[in-house]
Structure formats: structure tokens, C-alpha cells
Amino acid sequence: MQNRIHNLLFCLALSASALALAQPQPLSAQTASPAKPPAPQQKKPAATPPQAPPKPKTDSAPAESQDASPNPDAELQATVQQAGNDRAALIRNLEAYLVKYPDSPRRAAIYRALLESEMQLQNQTRALEYAKQILAIQPDDSQTLFLAATLLEKMPDDASQTQAMGYDSHLMDLVAKADPESRSPQMTLEDWQVGRNKFTMDLYVLRGKIERHLHKNSDAVKDLKEGFRLLPNVEAAVNLGEIAEENKNADEAVRQYAVAFLLAGQDPDENLVSREGLRLEMGNLWRSTHDSNVGLGDILLNSYDKTRALTKANGPEPPAYNKGVTDPFQFSLRHVDGSAAMKLGDVRGKTVILDFWTTWCSYCHVTESVLSDMRKKFAGRDDVVFLAINKDEDESQVAPYVKEMKFEGTLLFADGLDTALKVETIPTIIVLDHAGKIAYRTQGFAPDNFSDSLSAAITKASASQ
User: Fold this and answer.
1) Cα 445 to chain center, whole Å?
2) Cα(360)–Cα(343) distance, integer angstroms
3) Which end of the chain has fewer CB within 10 Å, C or N?
4) By the 8 A CB rule, do 111 and 133 touch?
5) What does residue 447 show for φ and ψ, rounded to 5 degrees?
6) DSSP-derived 3-state class of residue 179
7) Do the beta carbons of residue 410 and residue 336 sit within 8 Å?
8) Residue 277: CB atoms within 10 Å
């Protein structure tokens, strides 16, 4: 949450900078006095002598008297420049300016500069006053609404909490009605959607915390869970854990703290949460109801799996390769090195050994050493093909890993082949015969006789052709 507020302050700082650099605005056509056309010359009586023509002006001639009325824009610019980088001086100068020009059309920008300066000086009470002044002029200012809501939420009285909820709910309405076509040209639609999703999550979590303060725990649980559903986050999990603990539901509290423990440290916005404190809280609660730590590890693993699944569900859809294909020899797999994809149909009629592996699998190193020997053993056989199939979710890690570990052979991405062959364990070794049928499969840690059984399976499958 701290970094989110800093981001808001950055936007407000831009407003203050724009104010300091602003040039005095020219009078509009509606307020400027139009020049009067010259009156038509009238015939003079003959007795009246002609007037002498006016003397031409020179550079040294004194200027004609000008309107001495003050220029508010020039004065505002001077007021800001005189303060320099002194925030306290800027506040004094701008407040004095507002006393002199209480109806200035630049009030919103001035209040924004005052708000930013008060936040820089950590005077949150005064900052909140200026936020309210901005909202009185611009009630739909989303940045100020969110900042005001977060400041009010930290105040102990119910009136402040209620006002914070009003601001938060108003923001939810604005976000729901936001038009993606109004985004800046530099922002992609995907970035806009991700940003809206994160901001909506913040709003649900903030409202859930406010509802907790107002003793509306059932409403708080709904909003906190919705915020977590939109984007798994530590703040929602901790609050849900605390509510469960207050309700004497120790097991639910442990589950929520386990989620927070797993997420803590992954998000820079959540770096104020102590994983050590969460670990102690989980352990104490679990032991108080189960008399030991047995089973706590399962809670952590289940929490990890659920959070990971939810994160994937909320993320962008990965590219669908070979969608709907079930026959292995109809697949086209990308090379890890980025070269042209390989069509498995090109090896139809041969014995194909598929090694499914990942960069994080320690057992894959064991099987790789056996496969390396096996590739050498069948090196002279054109009818035997070895393919190393990677199924890492983060494909960017694969190429550097392959280079560091000096992996050999034909390295391909799974691109759905793992799903077609129901590969659920890593490592998995599958031998396909010439007809594409599975002649051999081994999953998980390689058994002691792995080398002999794999060699025998390859020999048998190739002999049947």
C-alpha cells in the first residue's frame, strides 16, 4: 500500500511542477475589450483651425500609461518560484495567494500542490483538508478520492471511516464505468485492463478494512475475498486471517496466514509484512488446536496450489499451440533456441523417445545423464529419435538454463503434447513406437534399473517396425 500512495504522490508532484512552470494565460476573447473602430471624420466648421497631427513616437518616448491592475497568473508563477524547493515556503506562499485570490480559477491546481507538499511533510491531517477542497471542485478526481480514502481509513473515528467508505464506493462506480477507449495512446488495452483489475482489487481490500473497523465483519469478508479473487495479495489474506482468529476459527486463520506467508516478499507493495511473524502466528495457532506441527506443511502446500491456480486464472491466456490435436505425430513443437518449429510427422514410422523435463526438476539431472548415454548407444540408428520436451511455465528461463547446463540433443517446448499424453509428473519418459502408440512410460524418480529397462524398451519398439 505504501508504494501505491507514493505513485499517487508522483502524479500530484507533476501537478505542482506544472503549476511552477505555467506561463500567464492570455485574456480570453470574451473578456478582452475589443478595439473600437475609428469614428468617421466629421466636417469641421470653417472657422475652426485644423488640429496638428500627433508627433511620431520614438523608442525613447515614455510609454503610455498602462492598466495597473494585478496579473494573478504572473503573481502565482512568482509565488511558486520564490519558494524554490522549500515545501514549507511553498505552502505559506500558496495559502497567502488564496487569501488574496479566493476565487482563483486555478484553485484546483493550487490545492493539489498544497496536498502534495503536505504529504511530503507528512502532515496527513492538513493533506486531507486539501484533498477535500479538490473533491469539492472535482468530485470525480480518482487519484484524490483514493488518497483521501486511504488517509481517512487510518483515522480512529467512525465518521472518518464512513466517509472513507463513501469515497471508496464512489471510486468503484467510476472504475466500473471507465471506458477503455479513453486511455492514453501509449497504453495498450491489456495494460489498461491489468491496471483496472489491480486498482479494483485495492478498492475492495480497502473497503473490507473499513468494514472491519465498523464491525461489519460479514461485509468485510465478502469484500476481502473479492479483492483476493481479483488478485491474490497479502493484505486481504492477513485481514481474513485476523477475522477468522477473532471468530475462534483457528484452522481458517492458519490457512489465511499460510497464504499471506507464501505471498509475503513477492510483491514490493507488501514488504512491510513480516514472514517471521506470520510463521510464528501460524505455528502457535496450529499447535493450540492440534498439539503439534504435524499437518501444517500440508496446509502450506495446499495454500500454494490454490493461490497459484487463482493467479493463473486471473492472468492472460497463454498462447494455444496445437489446439485440439490428439495424435502425437500431428504436433508441431517450437525449438527452445527459437529456430523453426519441428513437425513430429517428420519422424513418423520411427521410435521416438520423449523426455519431459523442467529447469526446476532436480531428478531430471539424473535421467538426463542416463539419456545422454542412451543417445550415444543408439547414435548410429536413423530409426531412433530422442526429443527433450520442456514444460516450464516461464519459458524465458529455459534458454539460459540450457546454455549453463550444456544440455544436448533436440530441445523442444511441450506446446500441448504433455496434455495430449497426460504427463502429470516430472520427469516423465515416454517411448512411442512407429505407429505412435506408447510402448514404454516411466514417471518421477528414475529406478535403479532405469537404464536397462529404457534400453530394452527402445530395442523392442524399434524391432517391431
Assistant:
1) 38
2) 27
3) C
4) yes
5) -70, 170
6) coil
7) no
8) 14
Q: Using CA atoms, how far apart are residues 421 and 327, in angstroms rounded to an integer? A: 9
Where, residue-wise, is CATH 3.40.30.10 in the chain? Answer: 328-463
CB contact at 8 A, 95 and 89: no
Task: Classify 172 as helix, strand or coil.
Answer: helix
273 Cβ neighbours under 8 A, 6+ residues apart: 234, 238, 260, 264
- Tell me the backbone φ, ψ of residue 389, rounded to 5 degrees: -105, 110
Among candidate residues 80, 112, 85, the one with its CA nearest the CA of residue 97: 80
**What's the angle, vertex CA 374, arms to CA 372 and CA 375, rounded to 5?**
65
CA distance 241 to 239: 5
pLDDT tens string for the chain (465 positions)?
Answer: 444 443 343 233 333 333 433 333 332 233 333 333 334 444 444 444 444 444 444 444 444 444 556 788 888 989 889 988 899 999 999 999 999 999 999 999 999 999 999 999 999 999 999 999 999 999 999 999 999 999 999 999 999 999 999 999 999 999 989 888 888 888 888 888 888 889 999 999 999 999 999 999 999 999 999 999 988 899 999 999 999 999 999 989 999 999 888 888 665 555 567 788 888 888 888 888 888 878 888 888 787 777 777 766 665 666 778 888 889 999 999 999 888 899 999 999 999 999 999 988 888 888 888 899 999 999 888 899 999 999 988 788 898 888 888 888 899 999 999 999 999 888 999 999 988 889 999 988 766 788 899 999 999 988 876
The cell for 313 is 486464472
Q: Which residues contact 327 (CB under 8 A, 6 or more apart)?
A: 436
Q: How is residue 143 written as a grid cell?
A: 487519484
For 465, which DSSP code? -
* Interatomic CA distance for residues 144 and 149, integer angstroms: 8
Alpha carbon distance 329, 5 (integer Å): 54
DSSP conformation class of 74: H
Q: Are 374 and 351 in contact (CB under 8 A)?
A: no
Assigned CATH topology for domain 328-463: Glutaredoxin (3.40.30)
207 to 40, 161, 255: CA distances (angstroms): 73, 9, 22
Judge contact between 198 and 267, C-beta under 8 A.
no
Residue among 147, 133, 61, 141 nearest 98 (CA): 133
Residue 367 identity (one-letter amino acid): T
Beta carbons of 150 and 206 less than 8 angstroms apart: yes
Instruction: Please state whether the predicted TM-score (pTM) of the whole model is above 0.85.
Output: no
Cβ-based neighbour number of residue 107 at 10 Å? 16
